[in-house]
Amino acid sequence: MTTSTKSVRGLGAAGSGTQHHIRQRVSALALLILVPWFLYSVTSAMGAGYEGALAWMSKTYNAVPLILLISAALYHMRLGMEVVIEDYIGKTGTRQALLILNAFVVLVMFVAATLAVLGVWLGTNV
Length: 126
Hints:
- This protein has about 130 residues and is mainly alpha-helical.
- The chain has one domain (about 15-120): 3 helical TM bundles of succinate and fumarate reductases, CATH 1.20.1300.
- The protein is about 80% helix and about 0% strand.
- Helix 4 (about 60-90) packs antiparallel against helix 5 (about 90-120).
- The protein is elongated and about 60 Å long.
């Protein structure tokens, strides 16, 4: 049963399924590029110890992609958890509370990780 308005706008049952799908695919594509870079960089710098890790992270060409990796991974995680919460939590109030909690937890994790990378990159103790 499809209404004419729904057909014209091209929206799914929830009204945002296509947009959510595209966002998740774009973040997955970013991770497809950034994760191999991260693994290669970390494994090549593994023998240097703590000081070597600080030196690795303090370089601009490592700090910026690392922040991008953190952003893409957390955004991808948020989108995935959103789908799980929407699909498996039946009670509306609980579902809304978990969706809000999901957004805030990801935001806190992003701020903490980004501040840590920026602190090392800029040479400050954050």
